[in-house]
Amino acid sequence: MELTRVKFTNLSKELFPGITKARVIEYYIKVAPKMLPYLKDRAVVMHRFPDGIEKGGFFEKDAPPHAPEWVRTFRRYSRHAKREIRYVVCNNLDTLLWLANLASIEINVTLSRVDDFERPDLVLIDIDPQNGFGEAREVALELKDVLSQLGLRCYVKTSGIRGLHVLIPIAREYSFSDTRAFAHELARIARREKVKIDYAQNAVAKTMAAPYSLRPLEGAPVSTPLAWEELEKGLSPAEFNINTVAERKDPWKGFFKPQRLIAHGAQG
Amino acid sequence: MELRAKPPKRAIWSGSIAVGLVNVPVKLYPMIREKSFSFRMLHSRDNSPIKFKRVCSRCGEEVPLEQVVKGYEVRKGEFVVFEEEELEAIKPASSRRIALEKFVDLASVDPIYFHTSYILTPDKSEEAYALLLHVLQRTGKAGAGRLTLRSKEYPVLVHPYRGALIATTLHYPHEVVDPRDMEELQRLKEPPEEELELAATIVDALSGEFDLSSYRDEYLEKLQELINRKLAGEVVVVEEAEKEEVKSLMEALRKTVEELKAKQE
Q: What is the tens place of the pLDDT at every residue in B250-262?
C-alpha cells in the first residue's frame, strides 16, 4: 500500500541553516495528527521558501496550477486582487505533506471555514511585544482573566520566538466586523506600552500561522499551542521548535466547542 | 584501419587456454563494443524514471529475489523447476578452460559463423602467452576449441590479431539459416545476358577499396546532436529521490497513518 500520494523531492535542500527539507517534512508528518484538525476546512495561504529561509520566501494564496487533482481547493473572488483566488484546503495528511514538499515552511489559515467564509469561528488577538517575551506573556494572562470573567474559554499559542496568539473559538453567528470590534475592545483593555496588540487580522481572508506551523525564523520555531499553566509557570518560546514540538501532547482541550460572545459591548 | 573503441576496464572471464599439457592463463576482455543508444522510460507527468518490479502473476505481489527460482516452460503454464546447484553441476569444463583441440586456417572458416571477438591478455604468465601468440603468428593458424560464457557454450577460434591473441566465438550451424531455405528465393530466374553485361560494367565502374572508416552511424550522430541541443536549452531535470531520507520519512509516515486511522475508528 502506498503511504502517500506525494512524491518527495529535493529532500537534501537546506530550508533552515542545518535543517533539510527532509526534516521539515518529517516534522509535518509527525505533527499531522495534532495539526490537521486545526487546518480542516480553512483556506490556506502558503509561505514558501524553495531555497531556504535565508534566500527569502513568498506568500502564495493560489494553488499552483500543477497541484494534484486530489488537493481540495476553494475559489473565491478577491476584491483586493480583482480576480478569483483558488485557495488550498488542507483536510488530509497528503495535502499537508504536499504543502511541506512545496517548501511551504509556514502554513497560514483563515479564521473562518470555507463553507461559511464570511463568518469567523475564531477570534484572534496577536500579541507582538517590542522588547521581550515577558511582556507578551503578561498581556496574554491578562486577556485570559478578562475572557474567563466573560465566561469565555480562550487558548494561547506561541507565534514564533517572541509573541503570542490568543484564540477564542466562537459560534458562526457573527461577522468579521463583530469579531474585530470585540478584539479591539480586548486590546484596549489589555493595552501596554511597547506591546503591539493586533486585532485587525479579524477580517475575511486574513490568516494566521496555523497551530503547529513552523515559522521561517532561525531555529525553526513552531507556533505551538500551550496550556495556560505552562505560560503561567513561564517558558521560552524558542524551546518550541522543529525538534521538540512533535512529541508534545496537544494541550487545547475543548477547542472545537463553539461559544457565543454574550457579554461584550461591541456587538450592539 | 584505426580501431577506436575505448579499451574495456574489466575482464569478463578468466581461465586458461590449454594446448595439450600446456596451460596459458588468460583474461578475456570484450573487443566489440557496440555503440547503441537507449532511452529511459519516464512518467510523462513529472519525468520520473519508470521502474520495473518483479511481480507474481498470480497474487500480484512483488517477489523478492530470494524467492525467485528458475523454471523451464515445458508446455504453456507447465514448468520444470531447477535449483541453482543442479545447474551449477552441469556447467561444462569450458567455463574455465579453452582447450584447443585442432589448429586450422582462419581463412578457411566461413565468416558468416563469426559471432563476436574477445581480446585475450596474459594472466600472470606472460611467457606462455607470448609463446602461443608467436607460434600461431608463425604458422598462420587458429586454434579451435570451446568457450562457455554466460551459460552458453560457443565454438571458439583463438587467433593472432595486431599483436594479441583473439578469441572469436562462432555460431553453431544450427543457429544459421540457409538462404536456400527461403521460399521466395527459389523462384528466381536468370536475367538475360545483355542486362547482366550492362550491370557488370556499372559495377566495374564503381569498384574500389572498401573503406569502413567512411561509414558512420548517422542516426546516432543525429541523436547526439539533438541531445546537445537539449542540453543547451530545455533540459529535463529529474530529481533523484534520496533513498535513505525517503526511508526514514516513510517510517514516520507509517506511524502517523496508523495514528490517524486509529483516530477515525
A: 889 999 999 998 8
Give me the pLDDT at residue B238, please: 56
Asked if residue A106 lies in contact with residue A47, where contact means CB atoms within 8 angstroms, the answer is: yes
Query: Do B246 and A8 make contact, defined as CB atoms within 8 angstroms?
Result: yes
Query: Could you report the predicted ipTM of this complex, rounded to two decimals?
Result: 0.84
Question: Which residues are CB-neighbours of B125 under 8 A, at least 6 positions away?
Answer: B24, B25
Q: Quick one: cell of B125?
A: 604468465
CATH architecture of B13-32+90-173: Beta Barrel (2.40)
Q: Is the pLDDT of residue B89 over 90?
A: no
- Domain ranges for chain B, please list them: 13-32+90-173
pLDDT the model gives residue B240: 58
Q: All 3 cell numbers of residue B141?
A: 593458424
Interchain contact, A26 vs B259, CB within 8 Å: no
pTM as predicted: 0.56
- What cell was used for B227? 541531445
Nearest CB partner across the interface for B252, out of A7, A10, A29: A29
Size of interface A-B (CB pairs under 8 A): 49
